[in-house]
Automatic annotation (TrEMBL):
Pfam families: DUF4349. This is Uncharacterized protein DUF4349. Keywords: Coiled coil, Membrane, Signal, Transmembrane, Transmembrane helix. Residues 163-227 form a coiled coil. Residues 20-61, 328-373 are annotated as: Disordered. It comes from the Bacteria. InterPro entries: DUF4349 (IPR025645). Residues 328-342 have a biased composition (Low complexity).
Amino acid sequence: MKRSLLLLALAGTLSLTACGSGDKQDTPRPRNGEFTVGSYEDNDTAAAESADTENSDATATDYKQSEPKLIDTKMLVYSCDMSIDVLDFDKSLDRIHELISSYNGFIESEVYSDGGSSSQWVYSDDEKWKSLSAVIRVPSASYDSFCSDIEEVGDLRRKNASVENLSTEYSDLKTTLAIYEAKEQRYLDLLESVKNESDAIQYENELTDIQIQIATLKTRMNTIENDVAYSYINLSVNEVRKYTDKPVVKKTDTFGQRLKNTASETWSSFLEFLEKLLFVVIRVLPYLLLFGIIAFIIVKLAKLISKLAEKYRAKHPKPVRPAPVYMQAPPMYPAPQQMPVQNRAPVQGPPPPPKEKAAPNVDKADKKDDKDA
């Protein structure tokens, strides 16, 4: 009782002080269950607050003993990867489309392949293996039922299911959006009351950035809402055939039968080779004709140019220039080598005077001339 009277007196004093000063104080917002005693503008409010403080200890004790907050599961995104094998691909595909329509779902994307080669040759149906990959969206309320029905379409080979909780992200986005919208409203109010043009331009730029952020937040929130509303099923459908053992080749064939089979297979292979060769020639023939025409034109032009060049050379022969005459250098003889002193012959004196020759016999010479005549 004394505590209540003390609190009432304190509240009255604070109220009189606030009225005398003419100032107003903001009331703090309670957070996380905590109670805060502060200044109030109204005495009745202070009195009510003081009356409630008697049970504050019990309230704090109850708050401490409260259970932890449970995880929010409002924004769950379900997804599943499934792979099934089917014997009758077309019939199974029709069944899948019926299930999608019955569950009010839709195909977001799909890739179909007939299993044929990318070449230009035609293959029979026995050589093709059809397949389908699709992303299916169904309402989350029908997610489990749809997956169960899909499993019955064929032989389930693989399944991987997962759940993503986006509640926290969505809550943060929602709070951030509220903050940006309040900020947007403040800038709109400022823009209406502003008179300076430079300030108006600045407010418009800030307002544009805020509106862009708001649009981004709303886009992400819409994406989360759509993902929560419609679950993902990544489905792969593959065509298969029943396995049959190949017949065992009997070894009772005679030599003549094996020879006949070998000759028949060889002849068939040879005919197939000729057929493919014929097709290749037919495909290449237009290109060969084109290259042949181009080569023929090039050869003709080369011959024509050669003939014209010969005629031109015949009409305009080149003048023959005389060969330049070069003077021959005198022969070079080796220089005489001086013999060493040891190998020299002894020096002789002057040679003796030559002997006088006898006068020729005139008679003998005349006789000789007569004989010759």
